[in-house]
Amino acid sequence: MDILRTLSNLVETSGFAGFFASGGWKNLIMIAVACVLLYLGIAKKFEPLLLVGIAFGALLTNIPGAGLYHMGMWDAYVHESPYDPANDYALYNTAQEHVYTQDEYLYYVAARGCGHTTEQIEAYFETQAETGSDIAADYEALFNSPDMDMEAALAIDSGLVTELSFTDIIHLGGLLDILYIGVKAGIYPCLIFMGVGAMTDFGPLIARPSSLLMGAAAQLGVFLAFFGAICLGFPGNVAASIGIIGGADGPTAIYLTTLLAPAFLGPIAIAAYSYMALIPMIQPPLMKLLTTEKERKVKMEQAREVSKTEKIIFPIVVAGFVILLVPSTAPLIGSLMFGNLLRETGVTERLSDTAQNGLMNIVTLFLGISVGATTVASRFLTVQTLMIIALGLIAFGFSTVGGLLMGKLMYVVTGGKINPLIGSAGVSAVPMAARVSQMEGQKANPGNFLLMHAMGPNVAGVIGSAIAAGFLLALFGG
Amino acid sequence: MYPISLMSAAGQQLADSMGVPDAAIGAVLGYGVVFFGLVLLMCVVIIMGKVMTGSRAKKAPEAEAASPAPAAGASPAAELPAAPGSAGEVKLYDVPDKDAAMIMAIVADKMGKPLNELRFKSIKEVK
């Protein structure tokens, strides 16, 4: 037994060696980012239920050699291109944005046989796209080169998986790949919505239906950020996913991004949940800026009592109506209203309890860690991520402004009966945004109790952001 | 559930080719669709509320006629028995003592005033 060789192999295959490989420093940065997110989740309590999971997923996925998540496999799945399991690489030409042609395929096999890395092959295609050099001649040269290891080339050729399905992913993937199937199939966000529905009392919205206007107005940021992202050069589908951050609704953002721009899921989910956690810091300055002391002091009258029957009919009517209006909202609205119906019927308490607690907790576990797994260093550490984070903040800010302006309008129309502060709760983020309205209202007038009044626009925002997502999905997905 | 590969060819083409004017139109249209949807939903909820309150108002006189008339001057709240242990002026309706004490303490804390400077008239569970 060659001890030195064994030890050398051990060192070379360890994760530590991975940090010194090409691009390994990026993994170190991402591990530091994950630790910062863990700190924010644990010490600062920023949406800890999800952020801790996302941060830990980010940590795991960026440990070299762990093999828990394979970005190349999902690239192959998305682009429907052959996948090289030995190298976690999708045969998708990013320089020319298409699945490899026959010549490119042969070049890939030849180059890998000659020991070229995927970075070198991608660099070749980028220069080839500019210079127009002859790929056929180049791969011929590679096949005839003395560096060619024909056995290795044949192994790569025969090992390629040409049609990747969820079954292949279960066979070839790591733990986080398997959990990520739930995100990719759009299951987790919908189950979370079911839990949210089971936890939400739509009574304040039924008692004051005009709250829906504030929920609609508070989608302003979604569409402004979408427009801004297009102006900054993002493609339409990515811009739509960035815009939905302004809906302040994590499951909706994840759902839409998974469908339209899966490569951007990591930064978009992190931006959405971070800003949701930062609502108590983002919203109050805008609330003070856009409302007067007199407006903030307004005490709202108790809304009418809502009967049990109304609460039971509401989810049935809303599900039918909204899905008929924007059919692409069906998974989200259907789940939300089903959860709510379980809560309100009074005969499905066990199911409601499971949707609110057991199921919600399990799905939150899987969702957090698998979304975190998508923050692979080579994809996350880009200028685009910084732009997404900046646009997300703009989206949140303008959504708050939209809701507040509608609140002010309703203050005027009702002769001062509506406190405009409840408009900012239209950004969803249930119930954090409603709590912020309550806190700001009490600062202006200690006898002011706006929480229940703000819950109306708050839950209206959930429906509003689902409709906004449905529209964007219809625009780019249909 | 959607097959995830996501965007249709038409959607992909639109995503790739969307310029600033198209994006502006898309944004305005999208905001309009959200408003339109929620305004319609508001109308539906208002109609539903009117129907429900109307039918409740219709049932109320029938129920009143069926039950004996309450004593003159008695308020509806007074009909409900106060919970055992109701003290002073505070009347508790379906609220246990402990919950009432907690509610009063929270209200005093939120208002930043000592409890003895506040007067609670009644605490009733809204169902």
How would you sum up this structure, described in words?
The complex is a heterodimer of chains A (478) and B (127). Chain A is an all-alpha fold and 478 residues long. Chain A is built from 28 helices and four strands. Chain A folds into two domains: 71-173, no CATH class; 178-477, no CATH class. Chain A has helices at residues 3-13, 15-20, 24-42, 48-61, 71-79, 102-113, 118-131, 135-143, 150-159, 166-172, 175-184, 187-199, 203-207, 211-217, 220-231, 236-243, 250-260, 265-277, 279-290, 293-296, 308-325, 330-345, 349-356, 358-372, 377-380, 383-413, 432-444, 451-477, and strands at residues 83-84, 89-90, 92-93, 98-99. In chain A, the strands form two sheets. Chain A has a two-stranded antiparallel ribbon. In chain A, strand 1 (83-84) and strand 2 (89-90) form a beta hairpin. Helix content of chain B is 59%, strand content 5%. Chain B has helices spanning 9-17, 20-66, 76-79, 97-111; strands at 91-93, 122-124. A two-stranded parallel ribbon of chain B has the order 1-2. The longest helix of chain B has 47 residues, at 20-66. Chain B is elongated and about 70 Å long. Mean pLDDT of chain B is 75; it is low at 1-6. Classes of the chains: A mainly alpha (478), B mainly alpha (127). The interface between A and B is large, with 64 and 46 residues.
